[in-house]
Amino acid sequence: MMKFVFFMLFMIPLGFFSSFWIMQFLFFIVSFMFLFSFSFNYLVMNISMSLGCDLLSFMMILLSFWICSLMILSSESLFKNNIYYNLFMFVMVILMLSLFLTFSSLNMFIFYIFFEISLIPTLFLIIGWGYQPERIEAGLYLLFYTLLVSLPMMVALFYLFDNKNILEFYFLKNIDSVFIYMCVNLVFFVKMPMFFVHLWLPKAHVEASISGSMILAGVMLKLGGYGLIRLMVVFMKIGIKINYLFIVISMVGGVIVSLLCIRQSDMKSLIAYSSVAHMGLVLGGIMTMSLWGLFGSLVMMLAHGFCSSGLFCLSNILYERIHSRSLYLVKGMLNLMPSMSLFWFLFCCFNMAAPPSLNLLGEIILINSLVSFSSLNMLALMLMSFFGAVYSLFLYSYSQHGKVYSGSFSFYMGVNREYLLLFLHLFPLNLLVLKSEYLVICF
């Protein structure tokens, strides 16, 4: 594991001296190096310096590397217009390094430190390269929501270390305190985000640049799910008693947020709220504490990471041309960009879990686990699936059909880089379905 850490550490000075495309190449190289270094077995591998990697960590790290590589590919305008792109590269490498260390740490305190460090580059991406002046407010929302709930977690970790004298994930078992459970898990509920503590997410997405939106949707929301899965064994006793409360919140919240999606006029806001609805489903699956629930939530997190990131790329491609995210202005793209409309159709279909996407597999497994937990969940799941289809088709039909906005001028259909970017989102989304049996090994 340390070889990847050193690889990324030596990439930091390169960000200031080398070309934009050399850095892009190195990001893809580290992704493929990591992909081919893994052996698919039941054990934690590459254990060194409190770092290790099982299949859950491996999938999350691979998702982080891949999304970070695609973020650079999507941010070519920074390079062309010379908008502090060297600093952008520096922030990107720091972000990738902190995410790698977060997902691979075996110690709870090291996990906590890098979990919080990964917030700082994300904040810089929103405040530094966002579009409107309101990005400062969005950044503060993100910062205070996260920091307010992270302090109780730190206190809980000190308390645990004082009592147990160890903070390794694999040695902590059967903590039976509601207070510790809430202190530790509240951080992950905010990061997921759970309904009631989700207000920072649409704000952050709307104000962030394309790279900020991609990392938020693709990886940052998965930190919450990863933390909950990792600590589920620790809180098994108390979880059996109170997890049903969070299942109710996630199910009802998912339905309400799906309804909110349908009345959004801002493209980015709609995709952000759909992320909240999908992560509500993931949270429900994790809280069932069943094998199917965990398997489904891992599959859903991966699928959502690629799918929502791709949708944000598509919305940015239109924003770069029309300079608006409003669904009332962005219309008739089927006439102007027919090739891009294919990608719009595919991503909107995958967002509503149409076959053969990974989203469908995740949703089927999560529906199984939630209905077997309680048959009352069936109603909420039916509504969420239906409204998921409604807002996905709403997004597609509003943006692709209708009369072209008369203020559009100097329009070009799309460049190879944009099609490559969208294909690299779509390819793993369809490819992972064919090898889905590997995703269940870690449980």
TrEMBL record:
Subcellular location: Mitochondrion membrane
Membrane topology per record: Multi-pass membrane protein
Molecular function (Gene Ontology), one example: ubiquinone binding
UniProt catalytic activity: a ubiquinone + NADH + 5 H(+)(in) = a ubiquinol + NAD(+) + 4 H(+)(out)
Keywords from the UniProt entry: Electron transport, Membrane, Mitochondrion, NAD, Respiratory chain, Translocase, Transmembrane, Transmembrane helix, Transport, Ubiquinone
Residue intervals of the NADH:quinone oxidoreductase/Mrp antiporter transmembrane domain: 105-387
Gene Ontology terms: biological process: ATP synthesis coupled electron transport; electron transport coupled proton transport
Record-annotated NADH:ubiquinone oxidoreductase chain 4 N-terminal domain positions: 1-102
Cell cycle found in the keyword field: no
EC number, UniProt record: 7.1.1.2
Domain of life, source organism: Eukaryota
Coiled coil feature spans: none
GO cellular component: mitochondrial membrane
Keyword Electron transport included in the entry's annotation: yes
Residues spanning the membrane: 7-35, 55-73, 85-103, 109-131, 138-159, 179-201, 213-236, 242-263, 270-292, 298-319, 340-358, 378-398, 419-441
Family affiliation: Belongs to the complex I subunit 4 family.
Functional description taken from the UniProt entry: Core subunit of the mitochondrial membrane respiratory chain NADH dehydrogenase (Complex I) which catalyzes electron transfer from NADH through the respiratory chain, using ubiquinone as an electron acceptor. Essential for the catalytic activity and assembly of complex I. Core subunit of the mitochondrial membrane respiratory chain NADH dehydrogenase (Complex I) that is believed to belong to the minimal assembly required for catalysis. Complex I functions in the transfer of electrons from NADH to the respiratory chain. The immediate electron acceptor for the enzyme is believed to be ubiquinone.
Name under which the protein is recorded: NADH-ubiquinone oxidoreductase chain 4
Upper taxonomic lineage: Eukaryota, Metazoa, Ecdysozoa, Arthropoda, Hexapoda
